[in-house]
Model the fold of this input.
Amino acid sequence: MNPADTPATPRLRTSDLPDDDAPPVAAASREITQDTPLASLTQAEIAALNERMLNETNSASRDVLIGPISPIAQLRHAYLDGSPSVLRQIDWLEEKGYTHYRAAARDGNCFYRSFAFCYLDRILHAPNLSSAVARFRDVLSSIEFSLELAFEDDSYKEFSEQLNDLINLVAIQGSEMTTEDLLGFFLEVTDYVSYFFRLVASAEIRSNTPPYSDFIIDQDVVSFCQSQIEAVSSEADHLAIMALCNALRVSIKLAALNAHLPDGKIHEAQIFTDIAPENAMDKDLPPIMLLFRPGHYDILLKPR
Amino acid sequence: MSTNCKRRLIRDFKRLSTDPPGGISGSPCPDNIMLWNAVIFGPAETPFEDGTFKLVLTFDESYPNKPPHGQIPFADVPPECNRWSPTYDVAAILTSIQSLLHDPNPNSPANAEAAQLYRENMKEYVRRVKATVEESWLDPDDKIDEESESEAQVSAS
Done:
């Protein structure tokens, strides 16, 4: 609904609110120390303290949401005790050229965050940037209809705008931008962009239900989407990943480390799963590569 | 980044003002948009009926990617602790708190005492809720002691 079409009511007094970018009003004018009696704190002071503490925690953990490029051999440490099978798989990946990875934070958003960063990074590194940007934008505008149907009041736009802004930035800066530059911009808005991809997966399942409905048991489609995809702490399962790839027409190459792989020669098919929709529009680009260990996704890298 | 959060809170307020769901109201403090006062009317046909519950919601820059924090007297209502979704707005938060008054979830308690009474001593639970309801009619200034004792942490993320 366009706010301009809504008749004003006498209760609406948003003009009283501070400007969007006005600095927050300092709530506490006195200095609060350990000796300040807790009972003397006003609600505004408690709010200010809370906000400061949360913002400090957030900024401290921000940089590790997607970690630096690290040698995959570092992962061996976690499996030295009693997981020879996983060690063999890590060594196998390294031998085959998958020598590095980026760790994603274990906060329930690892899949969507890793996916979102790879999605943008491969636009940046596409051989023909402007045609790649155009293609990715086309697909994004083609799914707007299902997003509008699934989420009332255009509530998804708050999140899609952040992705569009990043794509515009990639399009403008092009070869002047490095992957690390992109990572910096991405981390500023990572929660918005990662969440947008949850909405994309959810809208795909809601609007194109038949291929997915057999996998949704004991729940209707909407409550499945709300509790298993849209809730920020829910981890991505195979269904959500398929839906995301189908909606965006992109391919993922997923390496899954398996603690119970039988002894003997490792075959590629035992490690890798390709999720590639038939109508994928990114066949000329290297696929998004993710490394799966039970309960967690990281970004897998194969330097050229 | 602060503008995203504030822009969203302004939108939430516009929506709550133009299309308020029944039995709830809320608005930001005039000098701090990150701090909201809200009122929830107790749902009919529950022990909370006729109560008017004042609630302070505290937002930080992580909203809407993380839920706000808030407190409501003697009630077992954790709004969306682990089911938070950033498309929820203030109207949705207040509505869900109101509906949780109706249908508490004592298995994931926000107020351990309330949850225990709900499970083990329904009569006492109802008595305590009614006392809280009656207390909600008083002006904050006349409020009898021990109010802080019975306050529940509404939100955890």
